[in-house]
Specification:
It is built from five helices and five strands. It is of the alpha/beta class and about 130 residues long. The protein has one domain: Rossmann fold (3-Layer(aba) Sandwich), CATH 3.40.50.2300. It has a five-stranded parallel sheet with strand order 2-1-3-4-5, sandwiched between helices. Helix 3 links the parallel strand 3 and strand 4. Helix 2 runs parallel beside helix 3. The longest helix is centred in the last third of the chain and has 12 residues. The radius of gyration is 14 Å and the shape is globular. It starts with a strand and ends with a helix.
């Protein structure tokens, strides 16, 4: 039996249904964290094949536009590269495009999350 692929779930703000059962039903071993700092540590340790994270745009990140700059920098060190599903507020999509051009293995789901579409993307990514 093949080993389950690891999915790192980064839920910083939440406010949507728990997606862990969906990930597990799709055949993933799920590791969850609630801060990007913890996620970066998990990323280096676990080297997950998949990551699902909320894109948070905000000027409070100092010289960064969002919480994704550090994530994208860390992802570029992985070989093979992890696939990222970004959960993005439609109002922040333009800002997301500015940041996401640095990493090609990214799919987008807009809020409110369509769980069927999310599962479809996960299954497409695993093929």
């Amino acid at each position: 039996m093949p080993q389950k692929k690891t999915l790192l779930s980064i839920v910083e703000l939440g406010g949507y249904p728990n997606l862990t059962p969906l990930y597990e039903d799709a055949g993933f071993n799920v590791v969850s964290t609630n801060t990007m700092r913890k996620a970066l540590n998990q990323l280096r340790r676990l080297r997950p094949e998949f990551i699902v994270a909320e894109f948070i745009y905000g000027p409070t990140y100092g010289s960064q536009l969002s919480n994704f700059e550090s994530l994208y920098a860390a992802l570029q060190t992985l070989d093979p590269p992890a696939k990222l599903i970004a959960l993005v507020n439609k109002n922040d999509h333009t800002h997301f495009l500015t940041v996401s051009s640095r990493y090609s293995n990214t799919a987008v789901i807009h809020f409110p999350i369509d769980q069927d579409k999310l599962k479809e993307i996960l299954l497409t990514f695993t093929e």
